[in-house]
Amino acid sequence: MNPSTTAIVFVEFQNDFTTDGGSLHEAVAGVMESTGMLDKAVQAAEASREAGVTIIHSPIAFQPGYYEITSHPYGILAGVVGSTSFVKGTWGVEIVDSMKPQEGDIVLEGKRGLDAFASTNIDFILRSKGIQTIVLAGFLTNCCVESTMRSAYERGYEVITLTDAVAATSQEEHDNAIKFDYPMFSKPMTVAEYVGALSGEAVGDSSRGY
């Protein structure tokens, strides 16, 4: 793995998901605990910075009233509106302290839906920096991470998903996405395997997705 042509994208590591008291934390807490995903993400971030990988944060945020999206949301966005999540100016929209952007990190602006490619300039950033490999971690395993994974794959990037640094609203959804979907559109790795690849160590067969 070449750190100079690699970017790691941390999707929605925001208090509403990550932290006690967050509007959606209870829904994802079980899966987060099952893998220790927040600590694993911190490990991935630290190793990436040390190696010289480009660090990108992809938060989602809405104006109070959610005027940026349809007035009749359905699916996952209905859940976001119904729980009053990710509202600009609130504690819940802030990136969790342990994953706060550092000097040199890139914070995407404009994410209003699932796929980070759909409503941000991430593709421009990646191509302008000569990025060829995208590493993904965050929320939700089977939603924003998966949507971004599919788009990156379609655009010709090499895509790596960190299977123990993602979380969903149920263990079943999380496990099914990793088992059936991730291997179709990415190279699934654990954080330990990713860190090993950064340091030039041999990476075992990750096709199992765990």
Textual characterization of the structure:
By secondary structure, the protein is an alpha/beta fold. It has helices spanning 15-18, 25-35, 37-51, 76-82, 116-119, 122-128, 144-154, 171-185, 191-198, and strands at 6-11, 54-58, 106-107, 133-139, 158-167, 187-189. Strands 3-2-1-4-5-6 form a six-stranded parallel beta sheet, with helices on both faces. The longest helix is centred in the first third of the chain and has 15 residues, at 37-51. The two termini are 20 Å apart.
Fold blueprint:
Elements lengths: L5 E6 L3 H4 L6 H11 L1 H15 L2 E5 L17 H7 L23 E2 L8 H4 L2 H7 L4 E7 L4 H11 L3 E10 L3 H15 L1 E3 L1 H8 L12
Parallel strand pairs: 1-2, 1-4, 2-3, 4-5, 5-6
Helix pairs in contact: 3-9, 7-8
Task: Give a summary of the structure in a few sentences.
The chain is an alpha/beta fold. The protein is 39% helix and 16% strand.
Rg, rounded, reads 16 Å
Give me the number of helical elements.
9
> How many strand elements?
6
Q: Beta fraction of the residues?
A: 15-25%
Question: How would you write the strand order of the largest sheet?
Answer: 3-2-1-4-5-6
- What is the end-to-end distance? 20 Å
Residue-averaged pLDDT, rounded? 95
Low-confidence stretches: 205-210
How are helices and strands ordered from N to C? EHHHEHEHHEHEHEH
Shape: globular
Structural class: alpha/beta
Determine the fraction of residues in helical runs and give it as a percent range. Answer: 25-40%
What can be said about the biggest beta sheet?
Answer: 6 strands, parallel
